[in-house]
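Q: Study each token:
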Amino acid sequence: MTSPQTKPPVQPSVSPRYLPLLVLLFVGSGCAALIYEIVWFQLLSLIIGSSAVSLGVLLVVFMGGMCLGSLLLSRVISSREHPLRIYALLEIGIALFGLLVLFGLPYVGGLYTAIGGAGVGGLLLRGLFCMLCLLPPTLLMGATLPAIARWVEATPKGVSWLGFFYGGNIAGAVFGSLLAGFYLLRVHDMAVATYVAMALNLLVALAGFALARATTYDATRAEPTAEDNAIPRDAWPVYATIALSGVTALGSEVIWTRLLSLMLGATVYTFSLILAVFLFGLGIGSTAGSIMARSMAYPRTALGWCQLLVMVSIAWAAYSTTSVLPYWPISPDLAISPRFLFQMDLLRSLWVVLPGAILWGASFPLALAAVASRRQDPARLVGGVYAANTVGAIVGAALASLVLIASLGTQNAQRVMIVIAAVSSILMLAPVFSSDTGTSRIEARSALRVGATLALAAWLLWTVAPIPPLLVAYGRWMVTWIGRHGEFLYVGEGMNSSMAVTRLANGDLNYHNAGKVQASSEPQDMRLQRMLGHLTTLVPLSPKSVLVIGCGAGVTAGAVSINPMVERVTIAEIEPLVPEVVSTYFSEHNYDVVRNPKVHLEIDDARHYLLTTDQTFDAITSDPFDPWVKGAATLYTREFFEEAKSHLNPGGVITVFVQLYESGMPAVKSEIATFLEVFPNGVIFGNTHRGGGYDVVLMGRAGQTPIDIDMIEERLARPDFGQVAQSLREIGFNSGLELLSTYAGDARSLRPWLVDAQINTDRNLRLQYLAGLGVNKYEQAMIYSQILSFRQPPGDLFTGSAEKVQMLRSGLLGY
């Protein structure tokens, strides 16, 4: 290696007094980047779906673009260019692409939905589509830190400033994630959030240009040679370590998000809190690591100790999420306002996530200091380390979300993370390297470190406990069910969600998903599920082909399948594990629908399936996750209902489940008003429990044909409809007339009640924010009472014999 005497070192060309100002610029840049990330993920998930596979593709492309940007900048742009001017131009480019994605995505999305589909080919198309949309802006984002790195000296003290820049960037990201999740997208929409991010980019760019004019930069200095920029032979273990650190960081974040979303409720607010805490820890760690790197003699050793403590932090998080936090005596219904629950949720997120995040944040500046060489191009130095860390993060996120949790469960997935952290620690603590030969040797002291690390890892692996079945079943309500839950028949963790099946003392079965009972054989749930199925197939004139959105316990699909006029049933289910579970435990209640030869399963996000299929249906019924579950609101938007309407054959019918419990008035109004805007002839049927409101069924029709009471009664009297009639009797309806007597209102009667309703659209996804605020409320009786107070005679909605119509009207008067 060339000695310092042979070639003068590259000196920094800026006064250190300006460096703190760059930290502020990176705060603004980081804030804008996280706003973009949240907006882009929401926009793209509307097109390619919200499944783990789709989000995995999104994450890989997003982070891959940043990785490429960090590597390519130093190879494309000469170091003679003023770093601040380059940085400002990158910020302007990011703002322009932000605007282009916002307005151009609907047009590009139309091309994707025209050719996209399922299978490997569809997956590749999703990846290419995301690359087309995200690669240009993420390349620029990834290049910002290497660009500004050329303003500092490539020494441990100099590169410590890069850690401060990185920390400032993360501090801005924390604010951006909270600003987007709790205000911009809750109150405004994706367009406003994009404009705010663009304004931040432009302000940062203007400040960058101003600093470039106020400072001097030696544009004639010699560029580092290929030999200067070559990675030393003894630096490869550092790159491997920081890559493995990225694997454990993003892999653990995925696992912890799964566990904490069960514990706190899988709302958009929970995800924003977890992300903010993770970034907050990275920022603290990066700042602390930068301070240590300025004067530390052995940054490699410190990096190794950080990775060893990462093992401990992963085990701590596993212990906390399985054996401590779920048992805290916290009942969500005691909070008089959501903000008090947010405070508690923030505390629990800090408890789990913060220790590991601090250590991962500290690892980055320590890795920079460990490989820094005075004659290197700082842009290549930071670009290489950043790229290695990002590649590891991509692998970790994809490995945990697509493979480990589904195949091994969260318990063993965390054990895998501990093993990887142990390997990364050993890489730094064990060998002693010779910079002259590039070889390494193990000394007695190093052997002791390896032995101690392996022993500690073995003990930590043993301490990781399985997820409590009660947490899977009841989520944030777990502590209230201790000592009074039923028998657990099944507990499993799939690619997208965790689920359980329990049997109560009275023999009723409960199907749990997303930390709550989603379906059951209890009377009120059986009534709703079969109402959905039977209304969907009894009202249309010829219900030959039916789409069922969401398998759940399969009861709704089963009710659809037993109609003798139905020839084909397509079930769109996002979680591959669900059909297997319900076919085993709920076959008695769902008529073994999964194994029915006329039933076809599509394992895909329902929105993605509907956007990419050219099939049309005589009827569609939708029973997705609760709208407060992140991602579920995309199945309640105006655009989705319009897409569903376009897939209905003439005379077709669509039904949608709307829960009144665990929801607030604004959320229910939003769901109903959005549906009725697309289906102005829409009808509401009510499902009551113990004399009060419980949930409702919305029905829309492709056409103005009234509901024929006589036709429904004639069908139910036919021998081939005997199973359908029996199914209705089991839930308390002895005739079609009694089923239709659950009529609770229509668009005309509810117009005054919905005057202040917020329409849920693709651009605002308002429902998930409204529903997230009402997730712990039980106001179903009051909400349903208000709906009924606006009910008017159904007019010409129903047709049939005068006697039947009069009987229906009489029944409504006493309903």
